[in-house]
Amino acid sequence: MPVGIASIGELLVEFVSTEAGGGHRRVGTYTGPFPSGAPGIFIDQAAQSGARAIFVGAVGRDAFGEVVLQRLREHGVDDSLIAVDLELPTGSAFVSYNADGSRDFVYNILHSAAASFLVDDATVERLLGFGLDVVHVSGSALASPEMARKILHLCKALHENGVRVSFDPNIRKELLGDPGYFGIVNQLIDICSMFLPSDADAEVLFPGEELETYAASLFAKGVEYVVLKQGDRGASAVHRSGEHHKVAAHKVQPADPTGAGDCFCGTFVTLISSGFAFREALELANAAGALAVKKVGPMEGNSTLATLKAFVAGRA
Ligand code: ATP
Ligand code: MG
Question: N or C, where is the chain less crowded by C-beta within 10 Å?
Answer without folding.
Answer: N
